[in-house]
Amino acid sequence: MDQSLIFTKVLSKTDVEHGKAIRLKSFAVFCIPQGKHSQKFDFLDMISTGRSWSFRCSKRTNNSHPKPVLSSDWIKYVKEKCLKEGDQVSFFHVKKDGEERLQFGVQALKKSRLLGTDFWTPV
């Protein structure tokens, strides 16, 4: 399986309680058809092999500064992974061996501290 990183973000309180905010420049990779403001995408869980999550990617249409956000299964994903503010999530383009189409992937990392040193554990 080939994968390429799209972006990584340390989660904010808003990300874990309401929806995952996305930088506007990262929003372009989702290729939402012109005239639509949202679309659901399936994300392959890079840790739990075979598990898929359906996140809605959308941007505000009534704001001069649209801030894209992931919703739908996002909060369910956060709760199942026990994510909190300060944890990290990475998004990928994924191409499975023998398949032509690109998929999206998601990977969560929990922040831990041991003897004054931060380290990240995949969940």
TrEMBL record:
Q: Which residues form the TF-B3 domain?
A: 7-112
| Localization terms from the record | Nucleus
What keywords are annotated for this sequence in UniProt?
Answer: DNA-binding, Nucleus, Transcription, Transcription regulation
* Keyword Hydrolase belongs to the record: no
> Which InterPro entries does this entry report, sorted A to Z?
B3_DNA-bd, DNA-bd_pseudobarrel_sf, LEC2-like
Look up the domain of life of the source.
Eukaryota
What are the transmembrane regions?
none
> Keyword Cytoplasm, does the record have it?
no
What PANTHER family does UniProt report for this protein, alphabetically?
B3 DOMAIN-CONTAINING TRANSCRIPTION FACTOR ABI3, TF-B3 DOMAIN-CONTAINING PROTEIN
Q: What is the protein name for this chain? A: TF-B3 domain-containing protein
Q: What is the lineage of its organism?
A: Eukaryota, Viridiplantae, Streptophyta, Embryophyta, Tracheophyta
